[in-house]
Amino acid sequence: MAEINIYQRYFEAELEYNGVRRRAASVWLISDSEAGNIKYSAAVSFIPYEEAGDFRVSYDAYFNKTIYESAGRRSKKKEKVFLESLPETIDELAETAGGKVFWDKPLTDERLG
Questions:
Q1: Do 47 and 17 meet the contact criterion of CB atoms below 8 Å apart?
Q2: Following DSSP, what letter does each residue of 1-69 receive, concatenated?
């Protein structure tokens, strides 16, 4: 299994989850390939972010959605489409949890893999 973070970036966000106020979110586009199959997932993890540089890992406020799964391998064309629709997908996940990601307020540079 080869899991690759195609995209990752932190944004300001808001969510109260398990009694903890979350003020930031880490957003990912992930590819996972094994035995000739490829799967792409969108994921968001809300974190407390109590001060600059506070990028703790949150294991309880993590939400993901498989957006594509098929036989095949990585495709730069598909990844471009998935990246363009990532905010919409993440917004759906955040809304389901009662949270919000502020796309116009990034906290880090994007990381592309």
A1: no
A2: -EEEEEEEEEEEEEEEETTEEEEEEEEEEEEEEETTEEEEEEEEEEE---STT-----SSSEEEEEEEE
| Whether the Cβ atoms of residue 111 and residue 9 lie closer than 8 Å to each other | yes
Helix/strand/coil for 92: helix
Q: What 3-state class would DSSP assign to 113?
A: coil
| Beta-bridge partners for 111 | 8
| CA–CA distance, 100 with 73 (Å, rounded to integer) | 32
Q: What is the mean pLDDT of the chain?
A: 93
Judged against a pLDDT cut of 70, whether residue 1 lies above it is answered with no
Q: What is the pLDDT of residues 65-90, one digit of tens each?
A: 999 999 998 889 999 999 999 999 99
Q: What is the pTM of this model?
A: 0.90
